[in-house]
Specification:
The chain is an alpha/beta fold. It is built from nine helices and ten strands. It has a five-stranded mixed beta sheet, with helices on both faces. A five-stranded mixed beta sheet has the order 8-7-6-9-10, with helices on both faces. It binds 5'-O-[(R)-(carboxyoxy)(hydroxy)phosphoryl]adenosine and zinc ion (ZN). 5'-O-[(R)-(carboxyoxy)(hydroxy)phosphoryl]adenosine binds near residues 187 and 277.
Length: about 325
C-alpha cells in the first residue's frame, strides 16, 4: 500500500491530490480567478499565484485525506509541458518535500497524466481501459490521438498542426466576448442553441492530424460580415453560434478518431483533457461508441481539466516500477 502525493502546477490551477494506490483520498484545485480579467493566462501572475496557493492546497489535501506528511510514500509532480514559471513552483516544492521527508521524487508528463486519468479508481468496481487503446487527448494546449500501448508506452499518431481544440473553443468565445475560459461558456449556451444554424469551414488535412485555425478564421468572417448588417448579431445569435461552433469542433475531432480506430482495428476508446468535459463531446463519444461497437471511457468531469489526481496516478505507475528521479531534475515547457 502506498500514499502518493501529486502536485500539478503546469498552467493556472494549483492542485494537490493524495492517492492510496489508485484510489483517490483527496483532489483539491485552487483556480486562479485573476486571469479572467485579462482574457487569458498571464504567465507571471500564474507563477505568483502558485507560490501563494501551493502550501495551503497541499495542507488541505493532507487534512482531507486524514494524513500527515509522515504517511506519504512518494511525491509526484508535473515536470512539463506547461508554463515554465508555473512548473518551477511545483517542481521546487516537490523537491524540497522529497528531500525533507527522504521519500522518492517522481516526475510525471502532464499529457501522459491526462491519458492515465482513466486508471484513477473511485471504487472497486471502477472499470479501466485495456491495452492497447486509443485516446483522444484534447485540451487547451494539445490535441492528439494517442495509441496507448501501456502506461509507459504511448505513441502520438495524430496531432494538431496549429491550434488545439480547447483553443478553438476559447478563441471563438473571445470573438463573441464571452469571457475566459470560453469552452465551458460555449458548452452552456449551446444547450439552448441550434447546431445547424451556421456552417463553418472544416479542415481538409490528411492522415490523423488536426487543424483548427481555418475554423477560427471562418467564424471571424461570418461574424464580421453579419455584424455589418446587424450590430446586434452576436447578441441575438449567441446560443445558435455556440451550438454550431461546438458541433463543428466535435465533428472535426470525431472524424479523425473514427478513422484511426477503423484503420488500427482498436475498439477501446478513451477521451481526456479539458475538452472531454464538453457535453456534446461526451455525447458524441458514447453515441459513436454504441454505433461502432467500441468500449468507451469518458472521465468524470473533475479529472478532465487539470488536476493533481491524474499526476498522482501517473506517479503511482512509476512508483510500482521504482522509476524515481534525482533532485537535479528540471521542468520543461514543451513536449
Ligand atoms: O486540460 P486543460 O484543463 O488544460 C490544458 O492542459 O490545456 O484544458 C483546458 C481547456 C480550455 O481550453 C477550456 O476552454 C477547455 O479545456 N474546456 C472546455 C470545457 N471545459 C474546459 N471546452 C469545451 N467544453 C467544456 N465544457
Ligand atoms: Zn492539461
Amino acid at each position: 500500500m502506498a500514499y502518493i502525493l501529486g502536485i500539478e502546477t503546469s498552467c493556472d490551477d494549483t492542485s494537490a491530490a493524495i492517492l492510496e494506490n489508485e484510489y483517490v483520498r483527496a483532489n483539491l484545485i485552487a483556480n486562479q480567478k485573476i486571469h479572467e480579467t485579462y482574457g487569458g493566462v498571464v504567465p507571471e501572475l500564474a507563477s505568483r499565484a502558485h507560490q501563494q496557493s501551493i502550501v495551503p492546497v497541499v495542507d488541505s489535501a493532507l487534512k482531507q485525506a486524514g494524513l500527515t506528511v509522515r504517511d506519504l510514500d512518494a511525491i509526484a509532480f508535473t515536470r512539463g509541458p506547461g508554463l515554465l514559471g508555473s512548473l518551477l513552483v511545483g517542481t521546487s516544492f516537490a523537491k524540497s518535500m522529497s528531500m525533507a521527508l527522504s521519500i522518492p521524487l517522481i516526475e510525471v508528463n502532464h499529457l501522459d497524466a491526462h491519458i492515465l486519468s482513466h486508471f484513477i479508481k473511485e471504487n472497486d468496481e471502477s472499470p479501466v481501459p485495456d491495452f492497447p487503446h486509443l485516446c483522444l487527448l484534447a485540451s487547451g494546449g494539445h490535441t492528439q490521438i494517442v495509441l496507448v500501448k501501456s502506461p509507459f508506452d504511448m505513441e502520438v499518431i495524430g496531432r494538431t498542426i496549429d491550434d488545439a481544440a480547447g483553443e478553438a473553443f476559447d478563441k471563438s468565445a473571445k470573438i463573441m466576448d464571452l469571457g475566459y475560459p470560453g469552452g465551458p461558456v460555449i458548452d452552456r449556451l449551446a444547450k439552448e442553441g441550434n447546431p445547424n444554424a451556421f456552417t463553418f469551414a472544416e479542415p481538409r488535412i490528411s492522415g490523423y492530424d488536426y487543424s483548427f485555425s481555418g475554423l477560427k478564421t471562418s467564424i471571424l468572417y461570418l461574424i464580421r460580415d453579419n455584424l455589418r448588417k446587424d450590430p446586434d448579431f452576436i447578441e441575438k445569435n449567441r446560443n445558435d453560434l455556440s451550438a454550431s461552433i461546438q458541433d463543428t469542433i466535435v465533428k472535426i475531432l470525431m472524424q479523425k478518431l473514427c478513422l484511426a480506430a477503423k484503420d488500427l482495428s482498436i475498439k477501446t476508446i478513451t477521451i481526456a483533457g479539458g475538452v472531454s468535459a464538453n457535453s456534446a463531446m461526451r455525447n458524441a463519444i458514447s453515441e459513436t461508441g454504441k454505433k461502432m461497437g467500441w468500449t468507451t471511457f469518458i472521465p468524470p468531469r473533475e479529472y478532465t481539466t487539470d488536476n493533481a489526481a491524474m499526476i498522482a496516478i501517473g506517479g503511482y505507475f512509476k512508483y510500482l516500477n521504482k522509476d524515481f528521479c534525482g533532485l537535479d531534475v528540471v521542468p520543461f515547457a514543451r513536449g
